[in-house]
Amino acid sequence: MTAALALVRRWVNDYFNRHDAAAARAFCAPGYVLEIGDVTLAGRDDTWLPAVDRQMRDYPGLTMTVHETLAGEGWAAVWFSEHGARDGAEAVWSGVAIYREDDGILAGCVAQEDYMTRRRQLKIGRGDPVDRPCVAPWDIAVQAPDRRAEAAVLAWLEGGWPKGASILCDDEHLTRDHLHFDVERTEVKRLHSAGDRVAFWVRQHGTYRSGIEGLPAAVDFLDVNGLLRVADGQVVSGRIVRDRMGLWARLRRAR
């Protein structure tokens, strides 16, 4: 297990699922930074931990289930779900996060969480099924980076959304409602590979066309995190989470 993955294991088991801020202070840097969509939470004690604590108060039984992990030197990526109940209404929402380790502590994280699907479930009062947990998320083999796999993922990201049905994207496999976004330029924020799998955060600049009720077409950007597998130069499986809620908020403010 890499140092970064060992720290993420502590993050999930000791901090998040126990709602124990003291545990986080033991292995997260004082300057810990969370970048989630177009929001940056900088500072462990003054900003990041209080923000998560508010969510934990809203969802008293909030729990994280890990579905897949990937790790290399100084980083670890996780596809996960958070799930719980707020005022009697249940919800489960997926996320993809990439954590950064520096000298034995967690220094920061870049993540997308599908808050749009959480809002949908809270509105109807019924939660979606939780995806299957990973059998052994902390026992993955260390593999060398693969630049060809990274290039295949970047090529797959060109062109726009929606894409093929083989890749789980947000909650579209449940709702059958697709976000249409024409991508003109992809800004790579983070990109890591280990063997045939690739984790990334990109910001795609282009034109929103449709898919979010009540919003007209507009030029904007879309933050996208993913954990994908490549075979024979093609993306064949994986999980994508996009910041649809951030896009919705920006376009509403611009109206």
The multimeric state of the shown protein is single chain
Please state the structural category: alpha+beta
Strand content: 35-45%
**Helix fraction by DSSP (H/I, runs of at least 4):** 25-40%
How many helical elements? 7
Unreliably modeled segments = none
Q: Rg from C-alpha positions? A: 18 Å
The CATH class of the largest domain, by name, is Alpha Beta
Give the distance, in angstroms, between the N- and C-terminal Cα atoms.
49 Å
CATH topology call of the largest domain = Nuclear Transport Factor 2, Chain: A
Lateral strand order in the biggest sheet: 2-1-6-5-4-3
On the 0-100 scale, what is the average pLDDT?
95
Total beta-strand segments: 11
Q: What is the architecture of the largest domain at the second tier of CATH? A: Roll
The biggest sheet amounts to:
6 strands, mixed
Written overview of the protein:
Helices cover 28% and strands 44% of the residues. The chain is α+β, with helices and mostly antiparallel strands and 255 residues long. It folds into two domains: 3-124, Roll (Nuclear Transport Factor 2, Chain: A); 147-254, Nuclear Transport Factor 2, Chain: A (Roll), CATH 3.10.450.50. A hairpin with a 2-residue loop joins strand 3 (63-72) and strand 4 (75-86). Helix 1 packs antiparallel against helix 2 (21-27). It is globular, with a radius of gyration of 18 Å. 36% of the residues are buried.
